[in-house]
Amino acid sequence: MDWSALHVSLTLAALTTLALLPVGLALARWLAVTAWAGRPVVEALLLLPLLLPPTVIGFYFLVAFGQGSALGAWLAASGIRLVFTLEGLLLVSVLVNLPFMVQPIQRAFAAVPHSLREAAWVSGLSSWQTFWRIELPLAWPGLLAGMALTVAHTLGEFGVVLMVGGNIEGETRTLSVSLYDKVQGMDLQSAHVMALALVGVSLLALTLVLAFDRVGQRGRALQER
Amino acid sequence: MTGLQVQLRSASLIRLEAEFDCGAGELVALVGPSGSGKTSMLRAIAGLWTPTDIQGQIRVAGQAWLDTAAGVQLSPQARRAGLVFQHYALFPHMTALANVALAAGPGWSGADVQTLLARLGLAELSQRRPSQLSGGQQQRVALARALVRVMPRPITAHASTPETFPGVLLLDEPFSAVDAPTRQTLYRELAALRQKVSVPMVLVTHDLQEARRLADRVVIVDAGQTLQTGEPARVFASPRNARVAELVGIQNHFEGYFFKDEPGWGRLHWTDVASSEELGLDLAVFDKNKINDGTRVTWVLNGEQVDVMADGEPDSAAQPGHTRLRCQLLEVLSLGEISLCTLRPEALPSQTITLNLTSRLLRRLDVGAGSWVQLLIGPGALHIMPVRTK
Q1: Contact A123/B102, CB-based, under 8 Å?
Q2: For the segment B187-198, what is each residue's pLDDT rounded down to a tens digit?
């Protein structure tokens, strides 16, 4: 077992989820209620990482933040290096995980009947109080599902990690990349352990997602009664 | 100025022309078919429906909630409107107590809210969530939540007269989703409530019987317009025009002409044929000096005021102004104690009259479909309205 790779993977998954939660929450809530005509465009952009090969995303990241670009050069001059660092990996991980975080949360907010918002306003609650006291507690299964999906997907990410992070031990070598190394080096024993660990974590995360989804559905069914 | 005054006009997605008021302690029912705009009117009062082109004013206890001329438009939060939603819209993640406490102002303690719930028969259920409550119980929680919003503080115990509060209670078809026995209980609770709390109460319903039973006054709404306002009995007996008659479910409305006769009396030509009088189709009516001589009218025959006699039976006690009309029973639909009967006047076979006759009467007269009977129509059974012009 490559413990340092496990550490990098878990750190990346935790940081990605933490960074993405407020962004995803705001985006999801806005998408769930907005009547703006441009909404499908935003939704399409958000879903794009699901369809694009990771290499495309990695490539554009390198183009944007590499030493050759103006932005990359300016960042380097400020002492910030994003290519082949955990920080850079975190940034791109946040981007590719947007659909995994936003989708379940958006669905959860959209499932909150509008009459409940109106009932809250008529009861004297401001829009902000309505969000905190009514909408968020009802949408929490969606939040948990989004977080579980993000963790699982980050742990399993491979292509983008390799393109953007390289394969630096203790910095950007994640469990999935390490697994690739072990197979290349014919160390199948270690590969088995790591593969099994990834399967276990992903299965756990998916089980949680489905369990939360069921809680959410039950909540919705109750609201509709 | 107490009570609620509403004057609204909008031409956006939903066309609206509303004008009605509701005194403190009064219960006014907005009645109309679905899609007539009655719920929009209620939502406008609560501040939930605010089309950009809305014009007019909504005043409650002298305070303007909406006054487009003065640029006043309060948010829903700033209006003291207690709204009972059609499907209650209780917060599913909160207990009954929390649902109500959330809407209660600083004048309410937790114990006060608990007392209110107990008064509504929910003492044992205050810690339950909406999903653990029956439809009727949910509705009472919704009513409690609306009440604490209307009342800045609890009612004083043992007050002999109803207390007045500066809000309105709005009820959006609250009785539609519960079964009949529960509805009866809730009717009683609403009546009991009105003895304690004096605020304007506006009820939206499509159920005429409910409106008739609960409301002090009804407002007939159709296609976004308030057509007629008045006491239920009065609106049902004398609809202002043919559309109102149709909406309040009056079956027998006909066309005709009104002519003045001796003072206090008029004649109603059933049809526009000149031979109406010869056919015995001129009906005597009261002349209230509201309709001009020779006016084309819509008129309504109130079936409850019509006497039915066996064919050929002599008029033993001829009353002045009563007209006999020989009719054939076309159809008799038995609905238990009542039979829905369709009759065709001998002199005017193109028209039909619908009457609800007791099955007992039909047995006594020994008549059924195809038989002939006589109708005795007095001036009290006739109501005349000018034809509505658009």
Answers
A1: yes
A2: 888 888 888 888
Distance from CA of B103 to the nearest CA of A (A): 5
Provide the CATH number for the domain around residue B358.
2.40.50.100
Give CA–CA dist A150/A23, Å, rounded. 13
The residues near B117 (Cβ < 8 Å, ≥ 6 apart) are B96, B97, B100, B123, B125, B126, B141, B144
B213 interface with A at CB cutoff 8 Å: no
Which residues sit opposite B307 in a β-bridge?
Answer: B376
B238 shares its domain with B269 = no
Q: Are residues B227 and B269 in the same domain?
A: no
Token digits of residue B270:
């059933």
Burial of residue B294 (number of CB atoms within 10 Å: 0-12, 13-18, 19+)? exposed
- What size, in residues, is chain B? 390
Q: Output the pTM of the full model.
A: 0.78
What is the H or E stretch that residue A101 is in?
Answer: helix A86-110
Nearest to B89 among A116, A125, A138 (CB): A116
Q: Is B16 exposed, middle or buried (0-12, 13-18, 19+ CB in 10 A)?
A: buried
Q: What percent of chain A has pLDDT over 70?
A: 95
Residues B319 and B41: their CA atoms lie apart, in Å, by 47
Q: How confident is the model at residue A219 (pLDDT cuts 50, 70, 90)?
A: low
What confidence score (pLDDT) does residue A225 get?
Answer: 43
Does residue B185 contact residue B136 with C-beta atoms inside 8 Å?
yes
**Mean of the per-residue pLDDT values of chain B:** 86
B385 touches chain A (CB under 8 A): no
Which H or E run includes B231?
A: none
Q: How far apart are the C-alpha atoms of B7 and B384, rounded to whole Å? A: 29
**Angstrom distance (rounded) from CA B340 to CA B321:** 27
Q: Do B46 and A122 touch (CB under 8 A)?
A: yes
Which DSSP state fits B346?
T
Domain with residue B212: its CATH number is 3.40.50.300
CA atoms within a 13 Å half-sphere pointing along the CA-CB vector of A30: 13
| Residue of B337, B347, B203, B208 lying closest to B270 (CA atoms) | B347
Q: Which CATH class is domain A3-224?
A: mainly alpha
DSSP letter string over B178-215? S-HHHHHHHHHHHHHHHTTEE--EEEEES-HHHHHHH-
Residues spanned by the domain of B358: 253-386
User: For residue B48, which of B68, B31, B65 has the smallest C-alpha distance?
Assistant: B65
For residues B115 and B142, membership in a common domain is answered with yes
- The reply to whether residue B87 touches residue A222, judged by beta carbons under 8 angstroms, is no
Residues B66 and B211 in one domain: yes
Q: Of B247, B268, B296, which residue constitutes the final position of a domain? A: B247
Domain boundaries, chain A: 3-224
